[in-house]
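help with this:

***
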Amino acid sequence: MTLEPPELEKPGPPEHAPYGLLPDGGAVRPIVRWGIDVMHRRNAPVTTYDDGLRTLAADMVATMYAAEGVGLAACQVGVDLAMFVFDCHDESGERTVGVVCNPEVTVPEGRDRRLAEEDEGCLSLPGGYVPLARPDVAAVSGTGLDGEPVEFSGDGLLARCLQHETDHTRGTVFADRLSTRWRKKLQKNHEKAADRYPADWPAVPKIE
């Protein structure tokens, strides 16, 4: 998930980090775009918690920051695993970071359910933003990199991020939640900005 411009400063180490800091030292990978099969089907559950999973998470974190996003799912770097990383703030401005494997999202129902309509964007369709109504609070539970239970909850942008990234692990992109009119608007916005996002974005090309 990405923020609506103007661009924000690249995040530094968060002061508030439940379950530890995000893994670092990763390599920036190209972000795959909508239309790739892994983006549009339910991803495989994480069943092995090893160094390979930690390396993947570190690469995802590096890629998320390079793209100036607030969340990134494994499918967005072409990996078929139900996992996402995030570094996002809530309505009060408090930052929360985390890695969630096999996420399950919970949102209010009935009288407690309130929708917030805000612009939303996706790193796998860079440059496109349109309004989307989502529940204004959300909670996600799952497991961390060592298989331990984790849970995150919040409001504002954090709630939107948790829902957006969990959707990715289920093969849902946020355009799937839009009307035909808004999907067309989103695609036009993306096409106008396409020149700024080459196929290997945000990876830095190798110099031979």
